[in-house]
Design brief:
The protein is of the alpha/beta class. The chain has 2 domains: 6-94 and 182-209, 3-Layer(aba) Sandwich (D-Maltodextrin-Binding Protein, domain 2); 96-179, D-Maltodextrin-Binding Protein, domain 2, CATH 3.40.190.10. The chain is 34% helix and 31% strand. The protein is built from 9 helices and 11 strands. The model has no long low-confidence stretch (mean pLDDT 95).
């Protein structure tokens, strides 16, 4: 572990782009990452870093199992997957929120019927409704969760909301904000001990540039 560059897993897409911009602000040359082609493991030599590009859930898996020392992933994935690692920095970008949305005009909280919730995030949904003492049935959806109430599969949805445009265009509205979401810097527990000085220096640079 100590004979290789510090390995950091980045969530592909927007968080990848924002993280690379942050690294460049720090002063690192990220040319190899910007010109990656189809490569998934890329060097940032002047930072003694090695970037691994992965899907959000896999970022957590790689960090938790120690094949990557650090990772950048959304708080939504952190909340859903949980796991054993350190969450050190709120990076501030990728901001959105978890929210409960229903068909416009539907009174979700009235009556005594058990409501049905559709979500890509069953863990987050379950934790939220347990916290407010409400019994619900949860249906996991992989695609466009907005379809579930329109097809009367569910009474509402728990999903990530940024602007709310997709909800409005499909006749849905937010009735409760659940939790804010943004990108987080996470670290493997063993790496934090074995590579503490390197990680602390990187964290110091990150905090100085966000």
């Amino acid at each position: 572990m100590l004979n290789r560059p510090l390995r950091i897993a980045l969530t592909k897409g927007r968080l990848e782009k924002d993280t690379i911009e942050l690294f460049e602000k720090i002063g690192y040359d990220c040319t190899a990452v910007r010109e990656k082609g189809r490569k998934l493991i890329l060097p940032v030599p002047d930072g003694n870093l090695e970037v691994v590009l992965a899907k959000a859930n896999d970022v957590i898996t790689y960090v938790e199992h120690g094949v990557c020392d650090c990772g950048v992933v959304g708080k939504d994935t952190v909340m859903e997957m949980q796991g054993k690692y350190f969450e050190l920095v709120d990076l501030g970008f990728g901001r959105c929120r978890f929210a409960l949305a229903v068909k416009k005009g539907f009174d979700f909280f009235s009556g005594y019927d058990v409501r049905t919730i559709a979500s890509k995030y069953p863990g987050v949904s379950r934790s939220y409704f347990e916290s407010i003492g409400m019994d619900v049935e949860i249906v996991k959806i992989e695609g466009s969760v907005e379809l579930a109430p329109l097809l009367e599969l569910s009474d509402g949805i728990v999903d990530i909301v940024e602007t709310g445009t997709t909800l409005r265009e499909n006749g849905l509205e937010v009735v409760r904000d659940i939790a804010p979401v943004s990108a987080r810097f996470i670290v493997n527990t063993v790496s934090m001990k074995l590579r503490q000085s390197e990680i602390e220096e990187l964290v110091k640079l990150i905090k100085a540039n966000i």
